[in-house]
Each structure stands twice: as structure tokens, then as C-alpha cells.
Specification:
8-stranded mixed beta sheet; binds NADP nicotinamide-adenine-dinucleotide phosphate
């Protein structure tokens, strides 16, 4: 095959391009690897600024595909420096004869898809056009330095250095007056070194960063021992971990322990000298702002304890954005550097740069001369290097145009309209939120296996489907929505480059989950892809993940616990089990007052719990019926949800302990529900409520009796109700809906459990009675407005949907929320699953509207 007509063109000879070349050769594919630099190493070739080191312990930042390397190469330090990592890349390249497959000093300028030949034409800076079946961008996530975006940069006549393009021969700053602009990772690593040489060093800071000490030294003995003992298990754990480094997952909330204990725990993490340690101290650091603030304050106390000048310490202290939402930095003596008399910090918020001049910098009301300026101003991250090449796909569509409002990819690997184009660690993959080595190897292997399959099965092209790509965008958004990342101006969000769309560029669902998804895509016949060949075609369309990521995590954790099923227990044991589980959940918000009491049920007194807001009354009253399949639960079992509804809707919630089956079978629960409603209406004023503003609410079986009580009130001519809020209600026990089969297992409420509940509650003959199945009422006309919430992965979904439709058809105003990616139980899990919050907010809003 001609050199300019190959199976695969790979752009970039960093760790990704090198490994891919090795794999392509092994499988007999012809390839060209094109690299702008003069050597291998990618990021470690370009970033030669003083102090450049790997922030991930280098033991974890090593290739795993050549096991011999583990014996052949020993890292001299825990966090090896750039020259050593570059030597490692060169060693591997020599050992595997990779240099012979790489063209250096070649820049790829354009690439266009040829729909007739089903090939890419790649145009290079040397004037060559290379034709290839597959085109891989292995261009790295942080490879295009961003324009510093400062007035006057072209005026300066002295030497200018950019951290990401550092001179190969190094720079001697001895005796010089040096300015460093930026305080990101690159600056934080280089500043202590520049300070050692410079006569005067001024650091221009726009936003202070959180930095943890590397505590560098020899490779940690415990890690080395673990790797020696069982490397395979260690690597397997890394692949399924959150960030590509196996660390123990936290189980403690930063808010669940006293501040002193929290700080002791953080001190231990700090002393570990690992990039991920601080953030991994608490389970809620990434999702709860208050929890995150504990870490932020800990770092600020550290800064205050190191930096002697309190004003400088305060300026260096990050405030106003959560820890981890800008990439945390790792340093050796960064904060200590500010104790040196020739080092000065300038806060650009109070002293903005007016202009760079021919000889220095004008800032605030000052003007200073410098012998050198260092720009540590960052990169056009994630997409910069990809769209720097003019890539034109099908129908003349350019990738740049397609990504105008944010990158659209399937799995961060491929994009609709660009067949046979692959991105290694592209946007929408864990990439920069992971140990890059683990993510690089995974992508290389995924691409290798995919193109090998195509060759073996006679396919010429592969392209994701629009459904799969949109589904992936939504899943990435779902993952991002439950984190604290969105409000921070970070390069993760594209905020450092003016005009760049504001989305979270990397996938934040975790390395392990991502890997499982990619594997699943292949196992399901390349789900979400269309593959075509001259003689055959395959299209398995669909969305690979619709479940909310936090819901999935809870389901996975529960599956690991291997708990007995409730239907295998006696009702008494099931109740004890359920009560025990409830003791472990967060309590929900504080309310003004809680009052426990009894009220006359249909056949004797029943208990209730009243939640009163802290605001002055009288308040509307919502009579609430708990979930638990008519068998388990009580007036206190939905405590967190009742509290939250009380606070958010500013209403009194009165939760009723209606009688339970099997001791009290149908229609005891329904009769109690109605009796409670009548009693509340008659006693509203003495309960501190407004008798004219009463509504009902209920979850699951509680939704069932709430709906029934509403119908009974209508039929009895009162009490008059303002609304009904039904959360994943059971409304028809007379037949099996498709969702009961679809979601029969795996989502906590199972078909078997629902059958068990019905068996205990009502005879089959009774289940057609509207007091058991309110959907079957003769008429639904004249019922109060309803808010109905159904969940995608709930066996009861379709009957809830049917009730919403039937109410609408009967002329009842209905707000119907179909909670995507949720289960029967997930929406009500207050302070456990952030993804349920929007639905609960809408529920609270609906209650307010009922009474408006
Ligand atoms: P960065 O984190 O984007 O930092 C750029 C710095 O320049 C920020 O402090 C930024 O301020 C400032 N800046 C940008 N434009 C400016 C302007 N016009 N005026 C004033 N200040 C300006 O870039 P980086 O330090 O090169 O690091 C980028 C990423 O590379 C890191 O986050 C990390 O992922 C990776 N990295 C890794 C290592 C490692 O593993 N060893 C080392 C270095 C870098 P704002 O914050 O206000 O935008």
C-alpha cells in the first residue's frame, strides 16, 4: 500500500498515538502517525517549564500494556518530573520501534470525508495528502495554549515564555525581574523554581487556586509493595475507579462529623500528597456546597498557616467557588514562595493589567519594568486541538460548525456526520477528570477493537446515530447537573476562552462507569452506531444510559449488599427491616415545629405527625399518606420528604398512620385516609391551618389512598380539596401494565414485591373496586387539580401515566411530570440523590399553586 493511502492516520505522538501505533501494527493495519513536534511524548514534550511534574503519582501514570516495562523502568520519584517522563516515552518508542512509524514536524491542517470512497483525505503542512479509512485525533486535551487575551502582548520587546511551549534549552532567570501571569497548575509548579533564580518576581493572579502539597519523594513503599504483590488487581481497580486511580471511596459526609474531626480527616488526606485525596475525604464534597466548603476552609487555614503576610495569605485564599470545580493544583513550596522578600503577588481584581508595554506591565496605578514575562495562562482545552484542524465530514459539515454551541459526541469518541473519525480522550469522555494514562489506554483499545471488528466483518464505515449522540449529551448533562461544576468559571466549562460555549466538557460520571458503558456498547452490537459495508449493514439504535447517575450508583451499592427481598420476609420482619434502613438516611430540613398526635380513624384512633413551617400561620394543610404498599411504613416513615415539602411549600403537612395490611385489609387504609381528611377539615383551625385550603398528597400506596380519599370527598360532597399530589402512585391493581414487566426487577420496587403488597392488601376480586384502584372509578370528573409524578424505571409508571391521562380526559387540570431516569423510590430520597431535587421542587411548587 502506498505511504499516502493507509488504513489509519493518527494525529499526535503522545502516549495515545504511541500506543495506538503499536496496536495497529500488531493487527496488521497500515498507518501514519503525524506529529508537529520533533519527538514523542506529547504533553511531556511541550511542557518543559521548570518544575513540571506529573500530579498523579507516576506509578499510576505508566503504560500497562507492556508488562515488561514495570521491571525495566523504575520511577525515581513519586511524582516524576517532565524530563524523566519524556525519557520514559522515548524509551518505549525505541523499545517498540515506534519512531519508524511516526512523521515528525508535520502538522495536519485539513481533513475531509470522501463519501464516495468512504475514506478521509488528510492534508498536511508539508503539502502531502494522505488518504485513510480511519482517522484518529490523538491530539491531547491541553495542547493548544490559549491566547493570553491581554492588551499589549505584542508590544513587549523582552523575552516571552509560554509554559506550554517552553524552550528546549531551558531558561536562566538569574538576576532578572520576572513577571508570571496566571496561577493555574503550570504557574504553581514553576513559580517556586523561577523565584529561586529571579532577582524580583511578580505574580499576577486573577483567581486564586486550591493547591495541595505533592510531598514528593521516593515512590511510596506501600504502593510499590501492593503493585509487586498483585499488579493485575491494582490495575483492574484503577480501571473501574472514579478517576483512574484506585482509592478508597469515602463514606462520611463532611457535615456528618464535627468540624474538628473533619479537619483531622483532611489533615491526613493533606499529608498523603495525592492530588485526589482531599476531595475524596468526604462523600459529598462534589455535590454539596456546604460539605465542599469544609474542605475549602481547611485549605484556607493551611494557606494562612504557611504565608506569613496575612494580606497575601488572604489574596491567595480561594473563595466563591467550590473546591475541585477548578482543577486543584499540586505544588512543592508554592505558598512558601510568598514569604520570600523578592516575591510579590498582584491581585488583578484590584489592580487589573492596563497594558503590556515595550518594557514591562502597566497595572492598577503602577507601571513596572520586567526582563522577562511568563505566560502561564492555560489552554484552549478539550476541543482546541481538534477544531484547530479543519475537519469536514458528510455533506460539507465542519466539526467546528457542528460544535459551535458545545461539542457533540457519542462517548467522547465519535460524532454524527463524521464517519470513521475517532477522538482519544475527546470531550464527553472522562479525559481530564481522570488519570489520563488509564483513559488513553481504554480509548486506544476501544478504537483498535472496533476497527478490527469492522475489517473482520466487512464494514467500511462506522458512525453514531443521532439518537445515541443526543442520549449521550443528555447523560453527560445529567452527570454534570448533580455536581457543583456548573457555576465555576473554569476551563472545564470553557470559561477561560472568550466566546467558547459554556458546557462541562469532560464526562464526570467516573472512569469505571464510563468503561462499563463503552463495554456495554460493544456487547450490545455497537449500540448507537451504524456500520456499513459494501455487502452488509448494522444499526442498533438506542440510548446507552438513561438512568440518573446517582440513582444508578445507589442501585449498584444496594446490589452489592445482597439484601434479602422484602417479599421473602414476614410483614413484621419487613417492617423492622424498613425501619432500620430509615435510621441511616439524612433527616431532611429543620421545620418550625413537629407535633405527634392521634385522630379518629374509620375504626378507632390512628396516629399522625404534623410538620409546621417556621413562618407565621395559619397555613394551608396537606394531608399526607406515606408509602409502603399498605403493609409497611407509618406516619413518620416519610419524614425527610414531609419536612422538605413543609419547608419548601410553606404548608402544614399532616402525615397519617392509616391501618396496615394484612392485619387490616382493604378497604381499611382507604377508609382511614378519608376519615383523617374529614377530621383535618373539621379541625383545621385548631391545627393552625386554614380550613379553606386543604389538599392531599401521597407516595406509592399512599398515592393510592390519597387518590381514593379525593374521590370519596368528591362523592360525599366534602371536604373541598384544592389539589392532589401523587408521587409514583399505585392506581390500578386489576391488571399488569407493560412497565410492570419492563421494570419487573432491578429497581428496588419489583413486580414480585408489588404482587406481595397487593396480596396482603386486597383480594383479586376487590382490586377492581375504585376504592382499591382509583383509575377504575366510574367518573373522574369534578376532582381537584392534580400533580402526578411518574418515574421511568418504576413498575407503576404506566398506571400512573394512565391516571394522569384519564384525569385530563375528565377535565381535571393535571400537571404530569415524567421523571426521566428515576425509579419508584428515588425521587423522595431527600439529601441522598441530588437528581431527585428538581422533581421535588416541582412538587413543592405544585402545592403552592394549589393554594395560590
Ligand atoms: P490554567 O489552569 O488554565 O491556568 C491559567 C491561569 O492563567 C489561571 O490562573 C487564569 O486565571 C490565568 N489567566 C488566563 N488568562 C488570563 C488573563 N487574560 N489575565 C490574567 N490571568 C489569566 O492553565 P495551566 O496552569 O496551564 O493548567 C491547565 C491544566 O493543565 C491544569 O488544570 C491541569 O489539568 C493540566 N496541568 C497538569 C499538570 C500536571 O499534572 N502536572 C501541570 C500543569 C498543568 P483564571 O483562573 O481567572 O482564569
Amino acid at each position: 500500500m502506498a505511504r499516502n493511502d493507509v488504513d489509519v492516520v493518527v494525529v499526535g505522538a503522545g502516549f495515545a498515538g504511541m500506543y495506538l501505533l503499536h496496536e495497529l501494527r500488531k493487527l496488521g493495519f497500515s498507518s501514519r502517525v503525524l506529529e508537529t513536534g520533533t519527538d514523542v511524548g506529547g504533553t511531556w514534550y511541550w511542557n518543559r517549564y521548570p518544575g513540571a511534574r506529573c500530579d498523579i503519582a507516576t506509578t499510576d501514570y505508566s503504560y500497562t500494556w507492556d508488562p515488561e516495562l514495570h521491571d525495566e523502568w523504575t520511577w525515581s520519584e513519586k511524582h516524576a518530573a517532565q524530563p524523566e517522563i519524556l525519557r520514559y516515552a522515548q524509551y518505549v518508542a525505541k523499545k517498540h520501534d515506534l519512531y519508524s512509524g511516526i512523521d515528525f514536524e508535520v502538522k495536519v491542517e485539513e481533513a475531509e470525508w470522501d463519501e464516495v470512497a468512504k475514506k478521509w483525505h488528510v492534508h498536511t503542512s508539508t503539502g502531502e495528502t494522505i488518504t485513510c479509512r480511519h482517522y484518529v485525533m490523538a491530539t491531547g486535551c491541553l495542547s493548544v495554549p490559549k491566547d493570553p487575551d491581554i492588551k499589549g502582548t505584542d508590544r513587549y520587546r523582552g523575552p516571552v515564555y509560554v509554559t506550554g511551549r517552553w524552550p528546549h534549552e531551558g531558561v536562566d532567570f538569574t538576576g532578572q525581574r520576572v513577571a508570571v501571569i496566571g496561577t493555574g497548575s503550570s504557574a504553581i509548579q514553576s513559580i517556586p523554581h523561577i523565584a529561586e533564580q529571579a532577582k524580583e518576581l511578580v505574580i499576577f493572579q486573577r483567581t486564586p487556586n486550591f493547591s495541595v502539597p505533592a510531598i514528593n519523594g521516593p515512590q511510596p513503599a506501600d504502593r510499590v509493595a501492593r503493585l509487586k504483590a498483585d499488579r493485575a488487581t491494582y490495575e483492574a481497580e484503577a480501571k473501574l475507579s472514579m478517576s483512574g486511580v484506585p482509592i478508597e471511596l469515602p463514606t462520611v459526609s463532611a457535615l456528618g462529623v464535627p468540624r474538628e474531626t473533619a479537619f483531622e480527616m483532611l489533615e491526613k488526606s493533606w499529608q498523603r500528597g495525592e492530588l485526589l485525596s482531599l476531595g475524596a475525604t468526604f462523600m459529598d464534597a462534589g455535590t454539596n456546597r456546604d460539605a465542599n466548603e469544609v474542605i475549602a476552609e481547611f485549605v484556607r487555614t493551611k494557606i494562612r498557616s504557611i504565608v506569613k503576610d496575612p494580606e497575601t495569605a488572604e489574596l491567595l485564599s480561594p473563595r466563591g467557588y467550590p473546591y475541585g470545580t477548578k482543577r486543584p493544583c499540586m505544588d512543592t513550596n508554592y505558598y512558601q514562595t510568598f514569604n520570600l522578600s523578592h516575591v510579590r503577588l498582584v491581585d488583578l481584581n484590584t489592580k487589573p493589567i492596563r497594558s503590556i508595554t515595550e518594557t514591562g506591565i502597566e497595572f492598577g496605578d503602577e507601571s513596572k519594568e520586567f526582563d522577562a514575562i511568563v505566560y502561564a495562562t492555560g489552554f484552549d482545552a478539550m476541543t482546541g486541538a481538534i477544531v484547530a484542524v479543519d475537519i469536514t465530514g458528510k455533506d460539507g459539515l465542519t466539526l467546528k460548525k457542528k460544535w459551535e454551541n458545545g461539542p457533540l459526541t457519542y462517548l467522547g469518541l465519535t460524532s454524527v456526520g463524521f464517519p470513521n473519525l475517532y477522538m482519544i480522550t475527546g470531550p464527553g469522555s472522562p479525559s481530564v477528570l481522570s488519570n489520563m494514562m488509564v483513559s488513553i489506554e481504554q480509548h486506544v483499545e476501544w478504537i483498535r477493537d472496533t476497527i478490527a471488528k469492522m475489517r473482520d466483518e466487512g464494514f467500511e464505515t462506522i458512525e453514531p446515530t443521532p439518537v445515541a449522540e443526543e442520549g449521550w449529551r443528555q447523560h453527560c448533562t445529567d452527570c454534570a447537573d448533580i455536581t457543583l461544576f456548573q457555576d465555576t468559571n473554569s476551563w472545564y466549562m470553557g470559561a477561560n476562552v472568550p466566546g467558547k460555549p459554556r458546557v462541562l466538557f469532560p464526562y464526570i460520571g467516573g472512569v469505571g462507569r464510563y468503561r462499563k458503558i463503552c463495554d456495554e456498547v460493544i456487547a450490545r452490537g455497537h449500540l448507537g452506531f451504524e456500520l456499513k459495508g459494501p455487502k452488509n449493514a448494522s444499526r442498533v439504535d438506542g440510548v446507552v444510559r438513561e438512568i440518573q447517575p446517582d440513582v444508578e450508583s445507589v442501585l449498584e451499592a444496594m446490589a452489592l449488599m445482597n439484601l434479602p427481598t422484602m417479599e421473602s420476609m414476614s410483614p413484621a420482619d419487613a417492617r423492622t427491616f424498613s425501619e432500620m434502613s430509615s435510621t441511616m438516611r439524612p433527616p431532611g430540613p429543620e421545620v418550625g415545629e413537629i407535633v405527634d398526635g392521634t385522630l379518629p380513624g374509620a375504626d378507632g384512633p390512628i396516629e399522625y405527625r404534623l410538620y409546621r413551617p417556621a413562618t407565621p400561620g395559619p397555613h394551608p394543610i396537606v394531608v399526607y399518606y406515606h408509602g409502603g404498599g399498605w403493609v409497611i411504613g407509618s406516619h413518620t416513615s416519610d419524614d425527610p420528604l414531609c419536612r422538605e415539602l413543609c419547608v419548601k411549600s410553606d404548608v402544614v403537612i399532616l402525615s397519617v398512620n392509616y391501618r396496615h395490611a394484612p392485619e387490616h385489609r382493604f378497604p381499611a387504609a382507604a377508609d382511614d385516609a378519608f376519615a383523617a381528611l374529614q377530621w383535618v377539615a373539621a379541625n383545621a383551625a385548631s391545627l393552625g391551618g386554614d380550613p379553606d385550603r386543604i389538599a392531599v398528597a401521597g407516595w406509592s400506596a399512599g398515592g393510592n389512598v390519597a387518590a381514593v380519599a379525593t374521590q370519596l370527598a368528591r362523592d360525599a360532597g366534602g371536604p373541598a380539596l384544592r389539589g392532589q399530589l401523587l408521587l409514583t402512585p399505585a392506581v390500578d391493581g386489576s391488571k399488569t401494565y407493560p412497565s410492570m414487566r419492563e421494570n419487573a426487577e432491578g429497581y428496588i420496587l419489583t413486580k414480585a414485591l408489588m404482587d406481595w403488597f397487593w396480596e396482603h392488601y386486597a383480594d383479586p376480586s376487590d382490586r377492581s373496586h375504585p376504592k382499591a384502584s382509583p383509575l377504575l372509578a366510574e367518573s373522574l370528573a369534578g376532582l381537584p387539580p392534580a400533580m402526578i409524578v411518574t418515574a421511568q424505571y418504576d413498575p407503576l409508571r404506566d398506571e400512573g401515566n394512565a391516571y394522569a391521562e384519564a384525569l385530563k380526559a375528565a377535565g381535571v387540570p393535571v400537571q404530569h411530570l415524567k421523571a426521566k431516569g428515576h425509579t419508584h423510590t428515588s425521587i423522595g430520597m431527600v439529601d441522598v440523590l441530588p437528581s431527585g431535587k428538581p422533581a421535588r421542587n416541582e412538587m413543592a411548587e405544585a402545592l403552592r399553586r394549589f393554594f395560590a
